[in-house]
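ok, trying the design again with the full structure, not the truncated one.
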């Protein structure tokens, strides 16, 4: 069974930083893309950042990131991290780790970690 476990969430003041980490286990397919999504109350889940699990990773970010976040992956350890700097109150949300695999094609989600940014 595939399991994604997030950590690193918490409470931080505006302008501060957090580093989220996601550890994957039980993967049976070929890893394709890992990433982070977030969901705030009353809003749809949205992409924060993604990274391809390839020799030369391709990164993508949501429009709101504006250069503040950096995603990275350690293929040997099956982990993906999200460094978040210059956090704003609007960044407050539950952040979810995501994994997409091939052979079989599948999508997996972590349980989420709460990020709260105070003004």
């Amino acid at each position: 069974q595939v399991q994604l476990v997030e950590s690193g969430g918490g409470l931080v003041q505006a302008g501060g930083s957090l580093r989220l980490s996601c550890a994957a286990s039980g993967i049976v397919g070929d890893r394709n893309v890992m990433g982070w999504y977030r969901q705030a109350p009353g809003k749809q889940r949205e992409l924060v950042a993604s990274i391809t699990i390839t020799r030369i990773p391709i990164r993508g970010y949501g429009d709101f990131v504006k250069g503040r976040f950096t995603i990275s992956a350690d293929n040997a350890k099956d982990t993906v991290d999200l460094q978040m700097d210059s956090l704003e109150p609007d960044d407050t949300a539950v952040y979810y780790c995501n994994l997409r695999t091939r052979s079989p094609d599948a999508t997996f989600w972590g349980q989420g970690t709460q990020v709260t940014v105070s003004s």
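Keeping the full-length input from now on. The longest strand covers residues 30-39.
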